[in-house]
Amino acid sequence: MQQKKQFWDTLAKHYPHFNTPSMSKDVQEILAWTKEQGIAYAPQSTLLDIGSGTGTFSIPLALLHVKVTAIDPSANMLAVLEEDARNEGVIERIKIHQSDWNTFDVLTPYDIVLASMTPAIHDTFTIDKMIDASSKQGVFVSWGSYRLNPFVDALLQAHRPNELFSQTGSIKAQDVMARLDAKNCSYVSKCFETQWSDTYTFEEAKEYAKEQLERRSIAPDFSIIETLLHQCSSSEQIEIHTKAEKVILVWKH
Ligand SMILES: C[S@@+](CC[C@H](N)C(=O)[O-])C[C@H]1O[C@@H](n2cnc3c(N)ncnc32)[C@H](O)[C@@H]1O
Prior knowledge:
- This protein is of the alpha/beta class.
- The chain contains nine helices and seven strands.
- Strands 3-2-1-4-5-7-6 form a seven-stranded mixed β-sheet.
């Protein structure tokens, strides 16, 4: 857990804010489609944002006067959320908890539960806990069938040439659908494509590469990393591009 927390703390420096254009575009698309499916986001309704990160959903929802509870174990992610929420004047509408989803106490069910792109939802226990956190409605967002990041592909290939890696993460929307079926909850889903670029200095890109390897329990070889980075760019700035499919799932009890 400590290593994973450190991964997210490190990533927080580069993770998009609620108003980063590529992220905001995805969030607005997700909010618009889920609204069409009947998710209310009404003023004063309560919403739990599991693995809130920098507040990419919490802040836009607080701007709609939703009463948000944001939970995340990463202090650095939450520091960004708090600062941006203050700057937007919505800090009073967001309760922030530095907490792991496994151990977070849901005292009263929320009107809406939302979990987007978070490893917090990783097994039957955490999926069921998410579904049960609202007696009304839920939204789950995860990677879809592909995630293309040529730099990470090359990095994994160079370290473990004989292994096949999936870049879409372990929890699939199908796992959540299976639990919704088991609980007789009706749901709808939709896929869409997204893409973004992150710009790193050479040293930051080395750190990014190290974290990407360590989260897959691979020991980084810095000579391989440096060679790859030199191949990517001849300047001090390294641009890492990702294109992926995301899945949105909406359910009602
Ligand atoms: C990719 S970010 C997603 C942030 C935001 N939900 C979004 O869609 O932009 C994943 C977040 O999940 C958080 N996270 C990781 N493990 C978690 C856990 N066990 N419980 C709650 N949050 C967790 C990380 O700290 C990180 O902030």
